[in-house]
Amino acid sequence: QIKLRNHKDEAVKVIVRETMYRWKTWEVVECSLPFEKQDARTIHIPVMLEPEEEATITYKVHYTW
Fold this sequence. Notes:
By secondary structure, this protein is mainly β. The protein has strands spanning 2-5, 12-19, 26-31, 36-37, 42-49, 54-57, 59-63. Strand 4 (36-37) and strand 5 form a beta hairpin. The radius of gyration is 13 Å and the shape is elongated.
């Protein structure tokens, strides 16, 4: 779970960057927001936040080895 809050007076776009634990042997099976796979170990979750807005991101990853 990742919690975000925009304390600014203007809207902002935040890119949450998550690095996965295992090289290539993972799969995101659930995510509360759309994500983009960047490479074999990294996903980006873009979030747009209005002033004083809060957001919570949750996701589950299935690892195999």
